[in-house]
Design goal:
Blueprint (H helix, E strand, L loop, with lengths): L2 H14 L1 H14 L3 H4 L16 H13 L15 H20 L2 H15 L1 E9 L4 E6 L5 E5 L5 E11 H7 L4 H5 L12 E9 L2 E6 L5 E7 L7 E5 L16 H22 L3 E2 L24 E2 L6 H18 L10
Helix pairs in contact: 4-6, 9-10
Length: 337
């Protein structure tokens, strides 16, 4: 293991996938209802939240619930006449289903399916559970994950960057407290300061290190399997090296719908608060509900009209259809019975 080589390789992967990371962070912000942080110039001052439902989040959750259920796992045999072979197949089927149940894979798949649709790929990490003496399957968050493939599409390394505070790192690795905190001690460091904890795995080793602490290696073990124990499910697309999520191309459409909603609310507000036009014979007039204006020319009392083209409302329906087409989310999925 050469930690300098690994750190240099990880830095190259982060730079190579910087555009993908930016796209994934935009999706995350929109899913959280923070579209104003992605496109701050499109929201007026004092109104920094969208006035529409979060279509991307609703559609992603609904489709994830459809995709999440697991299939049945059954082993088969070609020799159906052998009772010994049948017992062996039944035993293997029991073992496989025990691995799935022990890992709570069905429960994890509801979140994993959401990640798969939103980000375009989903890592499955297989780790040993020493206490249970069994393998455990863990669905990993694709955000800040960097799989590396060879020309045949075979996974050769997997890198995952976690954000941990100094306090959390010291709790997990007290034997490295001096290196994590620094030689000046707790009095000169913020315990809530965030550091990067990088997990790198290839066919030779699994390494945990902190780049901000001169590539401090917290843990490293030789990989006895001879290959990364990670499986990457990639969403099909035109560029397999850069998988795209289901909603990457509809963020601007949702922004346009949010902008139209704001403009519609402003138009209604201006229409209600429009100034009064009164004849010249009125010297004073009351303001407020149920107020009475006395004049010899009542037909001349009116509010200033605000003309709104019907095309504005039609455009909102067009944008709604574009959202459904771009995200492949049919209208029948959101029909309320």
């Amino acid at each position: 293991m050469n930690i300098d080589y690994i750190a240099s390789k990880v830095d190259g992967l982060v730079k190579h996938y910087s555009h993908r990371d930016s796209r994934m962070n935009d999706i995350l912000a929109v899913r959280r209802g923070q579209i104003n942080t992605v496109y701050p110039d499109f929201f007026p001052e004092g109104l920094n939240k969208p006035m529409i439902a979060n279509f991307v989040d609703v559609a992603a959750r609904d489709m994830a619930e459809v995709l999440a259920p697991l299939p049945s796992f059954n082993c088969t045999t070609q020799n159906i006449n052998s009772e010994a072979e049948k017992r062996r197949v039944e035993k293997r089927t029991t073992i496989v289903n025990n691995y799935v149940q022990f890992s709570s894979l069905q429960t994890q798949m509801y979140t994993g399916s959401d990640w798969y649709l939103s980000y375009g790929f989903l890592p499955f990490v297989i780790e040993p559970d020493i206490d249970a003496r069994m393998p455990r399957i863990r669905v990993d968050n694709p955000l800040s994950a960097y799989p590396e493939f060879d020309r045949w599409g075979k996974l050769i390394s997997y890198t995952k960057i976690y954000k941990k505070t100094i306090r959390e790192l010291v709790n997990d690795y007290p034997e490295y407290q001096t290196q994590i905190v620094g030689k000046w001690g707790w009095d000169n460091v913020n315990p809530e300061q965030s550091l990067s904890l990088i997990r790198y795995e290839d066919k030779d080793a699994v390494v945990l290190y902190i780049p901000e602490r001169k590539n401090l290696v917290l843990n490293s073990v030789e990989n006895p399997m001879g290959k990364p124990m990670v499986v990457i499910a990639r969403r099909p697309g035109i560029d397999p090296d850069d998988p795209r999520g289901q909603f990457d191309d509809v963020l601007w459409v949702q922004l346009a719908r949010a902008r139209f909603a704001i403009l519609g609310m402003e138009a209604a507000e201006k229409s209600v608060q429009a100034p009064l036009v009164v004849p010249n014979d009125i010297q004073e007039f009351p303001v407020g509900p149920d107020s009475i204006i006395r004049t010899n020319n009542p037909q001349g009392v009116r509010r200033v009209g605000l003309e709104m083209s019907p095309a504005a409302f039609q455009e909102q329906q067009v944008l709604q259809n574009e959202m459904r087409m771009g995200s492949r989310y049919p209208e029948g999925r959101s029909v309320v019975m």
